[in-house]
Amino acid sequence: MAEAFCLAAASNAVGTLMVDYLVKPIERRIRYLFRFHKLIEDLHQQQKNMKREQTRVEEDVKEAKLQIQTQVIEDYVDEWLTNVDNALKDVQNLDSRVEENKRCFCCCPNWCWRYQLGKEIEKTTVYISKLVEDSHFERIGHRAELPGLEFFTSKDILASKSSTAAFNKIMEALKDDKVNMIGVWGMGGVGKTTLVKEVGKKTKESGCFRKVIEVIVSQNSIIENIQDKIADFLDSQFEKKTKEGRAGELWLQLEKEEKVLIILDDMWNEVHLKEIGIPLYENGKGCKIILTTRRKTVCESMECQVIIPMDVLESDEAWALFRMKAKLNERVSRDILEEAEKVAKECKGLPVAIVTLAAALKSTKTSKGWEVARKKLESSRLVEIGNIGEEEKNAYLCIKMSYEYLKKETTKRCFLLCGLYPEDHSIKVEDLVRYAWGLELFGKADSIGEVRIEVLEAIDYLKDSCLLLEDEVEDEDGDGGRYAKLHDIVCDVALWITSKEKSDFMIKSRWELLNKSSGSCNAISLLDSGKKKFPDRLMHSKLEILLLKNCDVQGTCFLGMKELKVLSLTVTDDCTGVVSLYALMLLPKLRALHLENFVDFSFLGNLRTLEILSLSGSKF
How far apart are CA 116 and CA 104, in angstroms? Predict the structure, then answer.
């Protein structure tokens, strides 16, 4: 009986093996031949299923990327999408081969070909079916790690304990969906602008924000100016003329934008965002704001959810920065290092003061020279400057001393010419060349090319002295022009220097200052003011250069300007009709004239002394 059982078991095993190894493979091969069209039908059905899942996953990926907090798409999702693309190409290739064979063997099928292709179709169908099955991911992506300490590498300032701590706090606050406004405050020259520029750069590079808009607000926080700067970043034009209408246009556009960070730099007073047209981030729409200010009260009045203080450099950090900028290496004598360290302490940890003063003194090679510099700095007296606190006086004195250490008087005058521009304003070097020519800054030069060489040399020297900053702005004129700019505190110092009674070059750059001793000033610059009517009864007997933007000008105002040599007028479309220039014919010394957005030039033929004429943006 046992023997019969064993024989039966052996017979069943042999039968199973014969089915598995002989019958089933034959059945599969026959299926490739006689169910070929069904295999193609199954392939196309799975292709449809896969395309449906592909669309769904791509929509999920797009939604994840649109979130204000950047999402990093998981590697397995990217891999799946790549595999889907490849599988769709395989299906397309198989369809092409099927159509090609139909044309070649329309009467009698090629059984070898059908067998081989059917096998590939079934394999691809199974693979696509697996892709469809694997398309339901637990998560599409995860929140990106925002840049940390190692990303704070600006060349303009060393990464101090205070700046890196502030940097990390800002980045952490940007992760929080509940935070839409961050305030950074600290004294002038401490490095707030450099810090927030670095934040803007890194958040844009990492994809946290699609647009980063930087606006210099400054003391004269004119709403229209802020609106114009934001519109420039958005490459948009206003259709409305009123402040309220423009605010409505900006609001609608910013709500449509994806992930926008707006940096409002150098705020002195509270500004109502709704008046500008800035929607705060809420429910996945709107903007996040970072503002910088010298006053903590501004952060509080603006209702910043996160307020971050930024302190001066610690003593060891300040000394390290000073030594680097003054090029005091290990080979310098102990006596020089001791005096230099005393000078560095007078900067009180302010980076802008350290950098400018160290650059000015880097050619000092003796301990006596350093001692003289220290005593001069200690004995300097600072007259009253508007809005300056006691803690910032040393910064002004250090920058003033850097100015005094400039070797050439022409370089000093080029520096003061830069003070004609508003703080953080782009200064086109070619404009300085025209002004220098008109003012005969370099005497009776033979050609404008000669003046250009002198100005470029002065600008490079000022940059090496850290009194001017490089400004990498888009060259709108396409002429490859170079640009520079002044730090806001350096700009204040330049204006202070010209305001002293013994100065031979006095600048008035604020509207409210025009009525104060205007008759003795050499230069008036109102390039960043709102639309105003320029006074026509002021006596400007010593005025040599006048730069106006968006001002209504009556010809009578030029009657007393017998010394005027350089004139620049930029107007908007709504005030060209009230600008009268026929009185320019009465200016006996006018050498350089810049007119922007003008229409009528009939008076130009009578300007006998004119040597440089610029008609930017004007219509003939």
Answer: 16
